[in-house]
Design brief:
two-stranded antiparallel ribbon, binds zinc ion
Length: 680
């Protein structure tokens, strides 16, 4: 069978030939791609020539290039333009791919070769980037147990199997607890305060379950607006208590013992591999480096944000007291926060939207990229796409040199998953004197144009577009030798710096003037609206910060110490929260037993990174504020040291080259309006 995925793409810039790729091509392409990659690896391990960096480490880096292309095309389509067939193929090929990845990780001959080069790395005169590549490869083996004796290897596999099972059960328990609860209301008066849309959805849900009335659940789309708008306090209390008790009810779905088993196993695993704790193991591959640094980062922020948070809390509480509530509780928080927000800012999304026509915003984004990095975007119509809505651009530099292909896929449709993301169809790399440029894509779900109106974005959508475009710049400006170190292939707590910093331009008058023009009158957005956007984005930021810190501290407490003697989940949790809690404790509630981020998903020892990334982007943007938000020199420093460097060096080293110092939290606290003394 002629399979376009297995041919050289004879297309402009070697882009993916979407229109001739059919679903039936994928599975055979994966099979063939894996087989060729395996053969390439065999040729490394059977090479009789003298062992060298080039014939082992570098060769391994460039194996399976075809498979990587096939994989990125396939999984990008599975997110942006999927169907039942593609989903079925994904189920078939995912185990094939993880088996192949395991074959590499457990390949002892390959490890021996990498190890012997690693052991004499000092003699080899390697560049910083080469050293990073070598160290990454070596760590990939070692962190999977390559250095262990056969007995310990068996133990490690056993622990991994148990951990996989436990985290699955943890998630299933939360799901069962979430589904077990429903709040059925039959009296219309109980709905007061709730938005029309929520009431409608609740009615439909009740009907679905063959019930009369309105049904509310613990799922976020039902739970969050109910807690924000329901006037009936005892119903809020009921829902809040049910939400907080998930996994903590001494029934068959209880997660307390699961947590104790999980943290103890993770600790054992870390010890086996030679690490002090699980957090030490995880943070070795993070900018934050170790638990001590993370803990002092969180503590420092807590001390600085607490006064503002307490003051905000008092303001919200005061509103509740005025309403006759004498014991302000956590189920009152969202409701009175919303009331206060309405009182303070009467900022309506609909009022802003006319100033954010998508076409103008995207042009604005391109103009900003031009002012900062001298990039030129040109829409083209001769590059193949997977859907007619996808726009294609060629990106060139100051002297007309080709930089990247850029795809933009803006509107929702069946077959596209929710949210917004940046991805690549082809990474950047250098080989044999060629600098092979990347193909970068952003995928969003923005408000569609109608017959009478163009696409007008909410401000939230505007910041989302800037965010994803920031990631895209990281991909497009990549200029490294090795694909695994290129673009967004950086440590996890560093990857949001380019995206989040770019959001800052949305709040600057000078930048808004470039694109925030009324789609009918062409009037530039009034300054007072800009100020309102800024103020409302900081609304109750102190309380929100303390909440994030509490989760980060809880995560670090579970994973950054020796858990052997922990017996009581709730007691341990209350201690770990420390000084972060503003509301009175609810005895029957527990956060940990439903903390799926860290016990089910991949965020263990990583929750701090949300705040970490904010500190970084605020500190980095401060450099632009000091020198002018379009200052070329600052932009160039950011490009040369961060955007183009990917993961070639340690993030802190790259950051210091850009900023001249380590980041600190002051810029974030200032931006969030949290830096003030105790006076209102
Ligand atoms: Zn992001």
């Amino acid at each position: 069978m002629h399979n376009p995925l297995l041919q050289n793409f004879e297309t402009k810039f070697n882009t993916s030939p979407f229109s001739i790729i059919k679903n039936k091509h994928f599975k055979p392409a994966f099979e063939k791609g894996i087989a060729s990659a395996k053969a390439e690896i065999d040729s490394i391990t059977s090479n009789k020539e003298t062992l060298s960096f080039e014939n082992t480490v570098e060769k391994l880096e460039f194996t399976g290039m075809q498979l990587k292309r096939i994989t990125s095309i396939f999984f990008n389509l599975n997110s942006a333009e999927t169907d039942d067939e593609i989903q079925k193929i994904a189920q078939d090929v995912s185990p094939m791919l993880s088996e192949f990845a395991n074959d590499i990780r457990l390949n002892e001959q390959l490890f021996e070769r990498v190890q012997s080069i690693y052991n004499r790395k000092e003699e080899l005169n390697l560049s910083v980037e080469q050293k990073t590549l070598l160290s990454n490869q070596y760590k990939m083996f070692v962190r999977n147990g390559a250095n262990l004796n056969p007995d310990d290897k068996t133990k490690l596999r056993e622990i991994d199997k148990n951990l996989a099972k436990l985290s699955l059960q943890f998630g299933e328990n939360i799901l069962a607890e979430t589904n077990a609860f429903e709040l059925l209301l039959t009296d219309k008066n109980q709905l007061s305060g709730l938005p029309e849309g929520l009431i409608e959805a609740a009615k439909l849900l009740a009907k679905d379950r063959e019930k009369e009335g309105w049904l509310f659940t613990l799922d976020h789309p039902s739970y969050i607006p109910f807690m924000t708008y329901a006037e009936n306090r005892s119903l809020r209390e009921k829902l809040s208590n049910a939400f907080g008790a998930r996994g903590f009810q001494n029934n068959k779905n209880d997660n307390q013992n699961k947590i104790l088993e999980i943290v103890k196993l993770k600790y054992k695993r870390a010890n086996l591999l030679g690490y002090q704790t699980h957090a030490h193991f995880v943070l070795e591959e993070r900018m934050a480096e170790n638990p001590t640094k993370v803990k002092s980062f969180l503590n420092d922020l807590l001390i600085k944000a607490k006064p503002a948070a307490s003051m905000e809390f008092k303001k919200v509480e005061k509103l509740a007291i005025q309403d006759g509530i004498d014991n302000f509780q956590k189920w009152d928080g969202a409701y009175y926060s919303e009331k206060l927000k309405k009182e303070l800012f009467d900022l309506d999304e609909e009022q802003l939207k006319p100033y954010f026509k998508l076409d103008y915003v995207i042009e604005g984004v391109f103009t900003i990229a031009n002012k900062l990095y001298s990039l030129n975007f040109k829409e083209v119509f001769d590059i193949d796409t997977y859907h007619k809505d996808v726009k294609t651009y060629t990106v060139s530099g100051e002297n007309g040199e080709f930089i990247a292909v850029f795809y933009a896929d803006f509107f929702p449709r069946k077959g596209k998953r929710n949210g917004a993301w940046m991805t690549s169809y082809k990474d950047q790399w250098k080989k044999d004197d060629e600098n092979s440029r990347p193909h970068i894509s952003i995928v969003c779900n923005f408000t569609k144009p109608t017959q009478t109106k163009p696409s007008l974005l909410t401000f939230n959508e505007v910041t989302t577009l800037f965010h994803e475009f920031g990631h895209a710049l990281h991909g497009m400006l990549a200029n490294t030798t090795y694909p695994s170190l290129s673009g967004t292939n950086v440590f996890w707590d560093f990857v949001e710096l380019p995206s989040q910093i770019f959001e800052n331009w949305c709040f600057e008058k000078e930048a808004l003037n470039l694109f925030a023009k009324h789609y009918e009158t062409n009037e530039t957005i009034p300054m007072e609206l800009v100020q309102k956007i800024k103020d409302s984005s900081n609304f109750l930021e102190g309380i929100a910060t303390l909440r994030q810190l509490s989760f980060g501290m809880l995560d670090m407490a579970w994973h950054g110490g020796n858990p052997t003697n922990i017996n009581h989940v709730k007691e341990f949790e209350n201690k770990a929260f420390g000084d972060t809690q503003l509301y009175p404790d609810v005895i029957d509630n527990c956060m940990s037993t439903a903390f799926s981020h860290i016990f089910q998903g991949g965020y263990s020892s990583g929750y701090y990174s949300y705040k970490w990334a904010e500190v970084l982007d605020a500190d980095a943007f401060e450099a632009f504020k000091e020198n002018g938000i379009f200052d070329k020199e600052t932009a160039n420093k950011f490009k040369e040291n961060i955007l183009s460097q990917g993961g070639t060096d340690k993030p802190m080293a790259l950051y210091k080259k850009f900023r001249g110092k380590e980041p600190n939290a002051d810029a974030l606290l200032k931006r969030a309006g949290l830096l003030f003394s105790s006076h209102d």
